[in-house]
Amino acid sequence: MAYAISTCHGFTINRPDRQQQISLSKDEGLRLAALEETISRYMRGDQTDEVQSWTLSEPGRTETRVTLSWFKESPFCNIRVFVEDKASKQGVTLNESHWSSLRTILGCGDEIKLGRELYAEMLNDLIRDLRSTRCEGCVRDWPSQKDHECLQGLTLRIIAEKPSVDPFEFQFKLAEKARDKRLRLSNPSEIYEVCATLLRSSIEQELTS
User: Fold this and answer.
1) In what order do the strands lie in the sheet with 10-15?
2) Which domains can be identified in the chain, with CATH numbers?
3) Could you report the average pLDDT of every consecutive run of 10 residues in the chain (209 residues)?
């Protein structure tokens, strides 16, 4: 059995059967929530059994890391504090049922999904604008689409340059979307950072698929 307790400072995750516990700040909880879809797919066995890892806290002497791995043909999610790159005793190891029971309490969903949706829209618009200014066929309005550079890998080259979505415009639009959905945002700037770092690669893959 595993359970999480929400506090004014963040979350505490417990596994009393193993005497395991870890406390996450609100920002760390938000970053963990951003990984919900990826972790859930892994825990269901929908992905390969290769090890995956992320850092929830800011890089430093002490870091909180999430690691997905397989042991005896079963997937596990390990959330642990590392001190000077060495695993500490503060952490929990979760199987699929443990993870499923924590998802709702950790708030996986609404504001992250809204932010991800908006970031994808803004990044797509940014790429489209850059593509139209760099493609000679689009600039000169060539009638034939066959010779347009934008159809010949230009999108991938622009994505490789890592164009940046404006954080202030993102937060402004996110607040508008949240208002329309009557959703309270806990930390718009942190949602931007989550989308621009943890979720960026998956968003890019969607835009090029």
Assistant:
1) 3-6, 10-15, 20-25, 86-94, 74-83, 62-71, 52-55
2) 3-102 (2.30.31), 110-208 (no CATH)
3) 68 84 84 85 82 87 92 90 91 88 64 87 92 75 68 79 93 93 81 80 80
